Amino acid sequence: MKRSEKALKIQAVLDRLYPQPAVPLLHGDPFTLLVAVVLSAQTTDARVNLVTPELFRRAPTPEAMAGLSEAEILGLIRTCGLAPAKAKNIRRLSQLLLERHGGHVPKDMAALEALPGVGHKTASVVMIQAFGVPAFPVDTHIHRLAARWGLSDGTTVERTEADLKALWPADAWAKLHLQIIYFGREYCPARGHDPKVCPICSWAGVKTRLAAEARARAAARVAASE
Predict the structure, then answer these.
(1) What SMART domains would the database entry show (predicted)?
(2) What is the pTM assigned to this prediction?
(3) With contact defined as beta carbons under 8 Å apart, do 177 and 142 qualify?
(4) Of 2, 15, 45, 121, catalytic
(5) Cα-Cα-Cα-Cα dihedral sign, residues 121, 132, 18, 197
């Protein structure tokens, strides 16, 4: 089966399972989405959603967040992974939003990536989910599943992103990004996965041992970089 044919079939399965996928991080505007995505690196969405209500109650805007001390922010997000670095980055990026962008989250990929703690994936999430600008954020789940399904060779995150963008139209990227994440969590975990009962891997999976080992190494590299 050609990649393009496989991609259409996978999309049909995902549309059936997740017709209206919601952004899993609690937020109310581009700023709170940006902070939530920064917090989500090497931390589950569920954990982020436990700490952000109080964080955003105290500091719902860049001005309010910049007004908190680093220690105050750390106290509110302490249970998230890499909390000290995230507290520093969140305070500084809030200051920079005030200094460079009039207190607004910029609708620009390069400007977002210039903020502390904001990498390409985080910027892509904000661009597509907050502003509707086409992007295809590739997280650990998407990188792993794209290789597992034979949609990309899994050598780099950049290669996976380019391959997926080539397979689906831009107006489908936002939905597919969320659908694949949900599918990876519910049906297609990294460990203990039985491809024979998976709604997609049962017919689309790449089953060679060498491919599985390459996927595991690539996923480990992605996890280390997030």
Answers:
(1) ENDO3c
(2) 0.87
(3) yes
(4) 121
(5) negative
The last residue of a domain, from among 130, 155, 174: 130
- Output the pLDDT for position 215: 54
Catalytic, out of 86, 139, 163, 175: 139
Q: For residue 187, is pLDDT > 50?
A: yes
Residue at 109: amino acid letter = M
Q: Is 108 a catalytic residue?
A: no
**According to the model, what pLDDT value does residue 208 have?**
40
Both structure tokens of 72: 């105050």
66 with 146, same domain: the answer is no
Range of the domain at 38: 30-130
Per mean pLDDT, which range of 78-82, 106-110, 115-119, 216-220 is the poorest?
216-220
Is 163 one of the annotated active-site residues of the chain? no
Q: What is the CA radius of gyration of the chain?
A: 18
Contact 31, 98 (CB under 8 A): no
Looking up residue 154, the CATH number of its domain turns out to be: 1.10.1670.10
Helix (H, G, I), strand (E, B) or coil at 149: coil
